[in-house]
Amino acid sequence: MKEQIKGDTKVTAIVAAAGRGRRMPGEVPKQFRLLAGKPVLWHTLHRLSEVSRIARILVVGNEQDSELHDSVVGYGGLGKVDEMVVGGRERRDSVLAGLRHTDPSEQIILVHDGVRPRFSRELADRVIDAAVDEGAAVAAVPAVDTVKIGRAGLVVETPDRESVWQAQTPQAFRRGLVLRAFEMAPSISATDESSLVERAGHPVRLVEGEYDNVKITTEQDLKQMQWRYEVEGGSGGGTFRVGQGYDVHQLVEGRKLILAGLVIPHTSGLLGHSDADVLIHAVIDALLGAAGMGDIGRLFPDSDPAYKDISSLSLLRQVAERLAAAGASIINVDAVVMAQSPVLKNHISEMESTLAKHLAIASDRVSVKATTTERLGFVGREEGIAAQAVASIVL
Prior knowledge:
Shape: elongated
Strand content: 25-35%
CATH topology of the largest domain: Spore Coat Polysaccharide Biosynthesis Protein SpsA, Chain A
Number of domains: 2
Radius of gyration: 28 Å
Low-confidence stretches: 1-6
Number of strands: 18
CATH architecture of the largest domain: Alpha-Beta Complex
């Protein structure tokens, strides 16, 4: 019978996203900053949408951010998200505004921070279960470090670390209970809703949270979260993968020398079925290898007249599109061109930006280096040019 009650419980999520992020510089509020190519808020809402027991999601935002809110919804996958509710100056005002847009049929209200995208569906379910049983529940993690209570720059108390928990969201409450808690403390500014329920005299169940469930507050938080999404995958299911590529083409007279899509002034060029861009060919093989998609010869065989004299930049775009369609994110590309001549150092920056543009990633994620072989081997004898590349992705 208890499970049936839980199954029938209607849950609505209120997402606090009206903050202006005073500790993170920049004109764009932190909830709308990009994380793995999408706004932070989108990741939070998408994860909440994956919690099957949540029927509706109310985003409480700042009135001046309505267009940004619409752009977040425009990324898709947020069918449970309702129209934005305009919040107030303080967090409690915003959450209360969200509560006033709910009705008595929505028995459990789950409150979550808009900039806390990396929580598990299982955690949300545990918090909801505890709220159904106890009326109020908060996700929290045991304190790892010793906690000091300070006043005027001096330690006045060191509480027992075993009894100290760091509160997180989601937090969940029976609707009537949390509304009464707001009404009983109309002038108290609270940093979370569970503290208001405590003040109203109702016990709050501690639900062990997750240390990865970080609230993005500073620029450093955003950078660390970006790294987590890239290396571990945005939903925790991605895999970090690395591929390598190597290519060689012969130098001949009467051909243009093309590297990274750029025509490099030289007395000879590279021989090949396509434009023979040895650098791009190495990068393509590195990307395909990381994604387990074969190699350039298999995808674009030199026996196919369609690829005769084709720009390798076109092939690179096609490979980037294949990876994107498979759900892969390119983290970085590192390549080296081995040529005795010409000297390439003045072209490196443009090579990097051109590759980055066609891979749809930031320029600082592409590194191109050039070296000679000290006149050793076929490169040293200027018979050909070689390139090697390493690429990392999350898939």
